[in-house]
Design goal:
The protein is an alpha/beta fold and 193 residues long. 37% of the residues lie in helices and 16% in strands. A 5-stranded mixed β-sheet has the order 3-2-1-4-5. The chain is globular, with a radius of gyration of 17 Å.
Length: 193
């Protein structure tokens, strides 16, 4: 059972990212402020929700949230600044885009670069503990998946419509045959030595 909020005095936003471990494509992040009474039985960490239910939840979250935003940092910038910094930057961009400003950030994971002077709490496996982080995980994942399906049309050989850029066997085999493309993260040392 997800907790509806961390505390009840401040406006809090849940933040999460998707695509940190991928070989290709951007890292996406979302920030979500939910109403205190928000509840949906399907809501959970995006990794524990089927694709069909993630898409149902995406629409519900976007319609019900007090504010939500999604942002991304592309593979070229990931290669320049590293994936951890890129994940935090994507979160910062999403927080900055919120139409309602939060006073407290709930961050999924154990590390975060502070955003301005806003108080934050890092919560390990927070996407399975707090509704707002779970909602952010759903939005980050569904928006990223949609982006990967779009760029799949450009490079169908890598089967991104299925693997979403993760290092699955079919993706690795395609890289071995065709090499890397402009969406791959060069800094991930994907090519065999």
């Amino acid at each position: 059972m997800l907790a509806p909020f961390y505390q009840s005095k401040l406006i809090e936003a849940g933040c999460d990212e998707a695509g940190r471990g991928c070989y290709a494509g951007p890292v996406f992040a979302a920030a979500v402020i939910l109403p205190n009474n928000f509840y949906h039985p399907l809501l959970n960490d995006s990794k524990k929700v089927s694709e069909k239910n993630r898409l149902i939840l995406k629409d519900i979250i976007e319609q019900s949230a007090i504010a939500w935003a999604v942002a991304s940092v592309d593979n070229n910038e990931i290669d320049q600044i590293n994936i951890l910094k890129a994940s935090f930057k994507a979160m910062h961009l999403a927080i900055a885009a919120l139409k309602t400003k939060p006073s407290l950030l709930l961050i999924d994971g154990n590390r975060f670069t502070p955003y301005k002077k806003m108080t934050h709490h890092c919560i390990i496996k927070g996407d399975g503990k707090y509704s707002s982080i779970a909602a952010a995980s759903i939005l980050a994942k569904t928006h990223r998946d949609a982006y990967m399906q779009k760029i799949h049309q450009e490079f169908p050989v890598y089967k991104w419509e299925k693997n979403k850029g993760y290092g699955t066997l079919d993706h690795r085999e395609a890289i071995a045959k065709k090499g890397l493309c402009k969406y791959h993260r060069i800094s991930f040392s994907i090519l065999p030595k």
